[in-house]
Amino acid sequence: MGLTSSLFAGLSGMKTNEFAMDVIGHNIANVNTRGFKSSKATFQSQFSTTFSFGSAPTGSYGGTNPMQVGTGAMVGGVFKDFSGGAPETTGVKNDLAIQGQGLFIIEKGDGSQVYTRDGSFQFNSENYLINADGFFLQGYGVDSSFNIVEGTLSRLRIPIGEITTASETTSAAFAGNLSADGIAGAQRSQLQSQALTNGSGGPAATGGDFLINLYDGTTQLFEAGNIISLSKANKGGADLPVADFTVGATTTYGEFVAWLEDVLGINTSSDLLDLTGSGVPDPGVTINADGSINVVGNIGASNTITLDSGAITLVLGTAAGPLSGNIPFQFSATVANATGESIRTSFRAYDTLGTPMDITLTLAMESKDNNGITWRYFAESSDDTDADRVLGTGTITFDVTGNYMEGSDLTILIDRTDTGASTPQSISLDFSRMDGFAMSGAMSIFSQDGFAAGTLQDYSIGQDGIIVGSFDNGLTRRMGQVVLATFRNYEGLVAHADNLYGLGPNSGAALIKKPMELGAGSISSAALELSNVDLSREFINLIIASTGFSASSRVIQTSDRLLNELMMMTR
């Protein structure tokens, strides 16, 4: 070896330190690049010239070590530091930062996938989440029922202002107190009309007689095409909605009576309290032997039915022209008023299309004994699409301390035929938050799980990456889930431009995971990950590299001076 070897050794030192300067400069230049991962260069010694491999010791000789001289340095590798950068709060919900392992999955324009730690996302004109290059953020989408579809990656889209959804009511809970001070119901309201005959001066009318043949004495009441209107009916102090009945040529008296029972909302369930032993008839609308109508309501003062003068009238007009108006029925005979402690409340439910339905609940004390108090609820609604307002009935029981014990038949059905909604709709009633103490009674809706139709107006992204959309009706639904790609060897990823990474031969395949599962990190919304460049360390590395470069240049200078000395010896 000669002085020329030291020249090349010094040159290799300058090159390696120059390479290190490139790496350091790249780190410093990207100190403010979101999600950037710093790198470091490592050096290795070049091949050494061996003058002696050394010798082993003997009994009288200590041995010698190898004698070798290196020929300089070379770049050993560039290693990327994939440790997390500090999060920076931005307040922008579509800015995402990863806390822990993993990278976002990006779909490029050609359909290929790349990966990034830069969570600076924005919306395009179609409400897809994209990065600064217009590439799509991928994750798990949702089906038509807003259930996340796992296993298939798709472009994440949050259609603000575009989609509308509703939720049917499946359960309703109530809270309050049912007073224990009152008496149990022992009487039902009972009304009776005037007697009617089949024909003028004929026999008492029966259910099979045609309406057009009914007479009040010598006055014919109906003609085909007439409309009978129930417009002034009252139940428990509340007016019932107007209902109309069309008279046909073959419409029977019995059909009209059945309609009247439906629109008055009288519950005739077979499990109702039997009061016939006390001379109280069962609830319903029936025809008496003299042709009059007998209206019997349910127990509880809030179920008292009143039909004032003119409650049932004849709407004037047929296809042939107007008829003389009259009042077919007069329920002037009030046989009895309903008794029993009772309370009434109303609540709003929704069908599968989000259409509101108003439902009335009347609760009446049915029995009181040494084991506690039993109440019966009656549910009805004018939004039931058939003529019958009745939705169901059941009981709830309180023990001797006023605490709720149990309930029976706590499901009601509402008909939604020809509305486009699912029918019949079932709603479960929950009275477990009710009490039965000796104090004034009051009750109200505590909660119901239905929602009217609403439009997506906002969203949030959780730590688990799930995107939850908020609708203007208060409903929330899942819009998708941001997922992460993890790798067995992150340093094996190939860096691309624009803060992106691609698969490398030594990175291993991308492992798609949901955030916070199987080693994947969590997602922080409204935050961005800063670069993990440590400026103080980079400045130190800069000093070290520049010093190494200068020192290597001195080796060349010294070798050159010595070579010049040798050249001078020949003169």
Descriptive notes:
This protein has 571 residues and is mostly beta strands. Strands 7, 8, 11, 12, 13, 36, 37, 38, 39 and 42 form a ten-stranded antiparallel β-sheet that branches. The chain has a five-stranded antiparallel β-sheet with strand order 28-29-30-31-32, with no helix packed on it. The chain starts with a helix and ends with a helix. Strand 7 and strand 8 (113-116) form a beta hairpin. It is built from three helices and 44 strands. The chain has four domains: 3-82 and 534-569, no CATH class; 93-159 and 456-529, no CATH class; 171-183 and 341-449, no CATH class; 188-336, no CATH class. Helix 1 runs antiparallel to helix 3 (535-569).
Secondary structure class reads mainly beta
Q: In one word, what is the shape? A: rod-shaped
Uncertain stretches = 317-324
Put simply, the count of helices is 3
Whole-number average pLDDT? 90
Relative strand content: 35-45%
The count of DSSP E runs of length 2 or more, i.e. the number of strands, is: 44
**Over the alpha carbons, how many angstroms does the gyration radius reach?**
44 Å
Distance between the termini: 24 Å
Domains (count): 4
Query: Biggest sheet: strands, sense, closure?
Result: 10 strands, antiparallel
Helix content: 10-25%
Topology:
Elements lengths: L2 H27 L9 E7 L2 E5 L14 E4 L2 E8 L6 E3 L6 E4 L3 E5 L5 E4 L5 E2 L5 E2 L5 E7 L5 E8 L8 E4 L3 E7 L10 E5 L4 E2 L15 E3 L2 E2 L6 E4 L2 E3 L2 E2 L3 E4 L6 H11 L20 E4 L5 E7 L5 E3 L4 E4 L17 E4 L5 E9 L5 E14 L2 E9 L9 E9 L5 E5 L2 E4 L10 E11 L6 E7 L2 E11 L4 E6 L4 E7 L1 E3 L7 E2 L5 E2 L8 E3 L8 E4 L1 E3 L5 H35 L2
Parallel strand pairs: 14-34
Antiparallel strand pairs: 1-4, 2-3, 5-44, 6-43, 7-8, 7-11, 7-39, 9-10, 11-12, 11-38, 13-36, 14-35, 15-24, 15-27, 16-17, 17-18, 19-22, 19-26, 20-21, 20-25, 23-24, 28-29, 29-30, 30-31, 31-32, 33-34, 36-37, 37-38, 39-42, 40-41
Helix pairs in contact: 1-3
